[in-house]
Amino acid sequence: MIARAGGADETRGADDIAVRVEHLTKVFGRRALEAADRLAAGASREDVAKLGTAAVIDASFEVRRGEIFVVMGLSGSGKSTLIRMLNGLLDATHGTVEIDGERVTGVDAKRLRAVRRSQVSMVFQHFALLPHRTVLDNVAYGLEIQGVDRERRLELARDVVRRVGLSGWEERLPSELSGGMQQRVGIARALCADTPVLLMDEAFSALDPLIRREMQEQLVELQAELGKTIVFITHDLNEAMFLGDRIAVMRDGRIVQIGSPEEILTDPANDYVAQFVQDVDRTRVLTAASVMEPPAASVPVTVGPRGALRAMRDVQSSTLLVTGPGRTVLGAVRDRDVLRAVQRGHRELRPLVDADVHRVSPDTSLAELPELAVTSGLPIAVVDGGDRLLGVIPRVMLLAALGNVPTETSEMAIVDLPPALDPALVAQTLDDATARFDSQEVSDAR
Ligand SMILES: Nc1ncnc2c1ncn2[C@@H]1O[C@H](COP(=O)(O)OP(=O)(O)OP(=O)(O)O)[C@@H](O)[C@H]1O
Q1: 383: Cβ below 6 Å to ligand 1?
Q2: How far is CA 137 from CA 117, 120, 219, 333, 355, in A?
Q3: Is the ipTM of this structure higher than 0.95?
Q4: Cα–Cα distance, 392 to 369 (Å, whole number)
Q5: Does 210 lie in the same domain as 98?
Q6: Over the chain, what is the mean pLDDT?
Q7: CB of 81 closer than 6 A to ligand 1?
Q8: DSSP label at residue 245
Q9: Ligand 1 pocket test target in 26, 28, 82 with most atoms within 8 Å of CB
């Protein structure tokens, strides 16, 4: 599991905002301004169609430093137009963009160039490499434009080439590289410019699926390492869900929802988003933390078999996690063993504990869990770095959470829960034990 920099944190101050977009609108066409005014007054995209194409309508959002902010939508929804206004490649018809507090909209070309040079780089879908320059020279190109001397820029470029896994290819030409490698060069070039903000427009869409996945993983790693702010455009929902700390969903030029992948998935703002996300592979988005239950289905080992049996009756579970000092996980017990121990008057729970429970961290992807559930048959313990119990994932929860897994994983057999013990038998055993315990206490007292 890769540690993520950034992420949602509502308490951050204004200084933590890398990109601020307010009421941004772009209309293509000769009467663009008139159309934008009418849109601002409440007209629809269709209402102004005769005046021009409203590609982006009244978009407002903020991207925090170190965040991967994904803009997702179908073809023609306005994603490319939006991202091109973020670095001034396109003028806005209405509204403002600020990068790191610097205006990008409504400024002169010189100012714009300065912002681009120091604040924001872009990675394109089709790499846009210089064909007659080597990998190293392509990567160093941004620094060359900035006037960095040759030796220094090649040194910096070599370091970035190594980071993206292209060591040994420095002197090759782009045409000698595969598509995935060319895109690594594109990313390296953007990283080498050392701007805090990276804009990526369908950067992985031209790559085949395996390479694409590898690049997504590498991007997340690089981001965690370098702390860049990334605005990533994609029409691929699974990609958006994998990469995004937050996702903005666009439809017909408007942003219809902004939220974390989990929010978009579990609480879609409208039917459009709901339909969009219905095919997403939930196992890649949801984590152990999102499906775990509070550790009610656990007991401290000190409660003994009777306490454990009572707890099992109360939470109606056939297995129970058992904790030791400091809520560390010792293992789990099964109802049959506990029942037998109570019937025999045993006082210790520890000998019944099966230490073989799976422990996962809260950010473990759901995709990894079914296999664990199958192999152990016990609930899964969600623990922190100190092996302290944070929550429990009973296997029924897993089944519910995996509601729409794709067919290749839904074939995985999940062992049925063993039938629960007869509640009357449990109640009788507890009553008998209590009576025995009471009479023993009385005789002990004598
Ligand atoms: N230069 C232009 N002139 C006129 N209309 C344009 C121009 N660029 C984009 N559009 C229109 O603006 C709308 C949004 O296009 P945009 O390319 O931003 O969408 P997109 O979501 O990025 O789609 P895709 O993934 O296909 O690139 C579309 O209707 C498109 O036809």
Answers
A1: no
A2: 17, 20, 22, 63, 57
A3: yes
A4: 12
A5: yes
A6: 83
A7: yes
A8: S
A9: 28
Nearest atom, ligand 1, residue 235 CA: 25
Gap between the Cα atoms of 263 and 120, Å rounded: 28
| φ, ψ for residue 207, nearest 5 deg | -95, 155
Select the more confidently predicted residue: 74 or 21: 21
Answer yes or no: is 445 within a domain.
no
Please tell me the total number of residues recorded for the chain in this structure.
446
**Centre of ligand 1 from the C-alpha of residue 250, in Å:** 12
Ligand 1 contact via 53 beta carbon (within 6 Å): yes
Atom of ligand 1 nearest to the CA of 84: 18
What's the angle, vertex CA 97, arms to CA 96 and CA 99, rounded to 5?
A: 150
Q: Are 97 and 104 in contact (CB under 8 A)?
A: yes
Q: Give nearest CA residue, ligand 1 atom 8.
A: 81
- For ligand 1, whether the C-beta of 80 sits within 6 Å is yes
Q: Is the CB of 79 under 6 A from ligand 1?
A: yes
**Ligand 1 pocket member 73 (CB < 6 A):** yes
Quick: pLDDT tens for 123-139. Answer: 887 767 888 999 999 99
- Residue minimizing CA distance to atom 30 of ligand 1: 76
pTM strictly above 0.90: no
Do 246 and 311 lie in one domain? The reply is no
Residues 363, 353: Cα–Cα separation, whole Å:
26
Q: Let me know if residue 181 belongs to a domain.
A: no
- For residue range 405-427, list pLDDT tens digits in order: 433 333 333 333 454 678 888 88
Measured CA to CA, the distance from residue 442 to residue 446 in angstroms comes to 6
pLDDT of residue 396: 61
Amino acid (1-letter code) at residue 431: D
Whether residue 367 is contained in a domain is answered as yes
Residue 424 pLDDT: 82
Q: Is 149 within the bounds of a domain? A: no
Let me know whether 34 and 91 are in one domain: yes
Tens digits of residue pLDDT in 256-290? 999 998 888 888 888 888 887 777 777 767 778 87
Asked whether 158 lines ligand 1 (CB < 6 A), one says no
Q: How many domains does the chain have?
A: 2
CATH number at 302 reads 3.10.580.10
Mutate to test the pocket of ligand 1, among 56, 81, 205 (most ligand atoms within 8 A of CB): 81
Domain span at 20: 14-119+195-280
> Which amino acid type is present at position 81?
T
For ligand 1, atom 10: residue with the closest CA: 55
Distance CA 54, CA 252 (A): 8
How far, in Å, is the centroid of ligand 1 from the Cα of 80? 7
Pocket flag, ligand 1, residue 234 (CB < 6 Å):
no
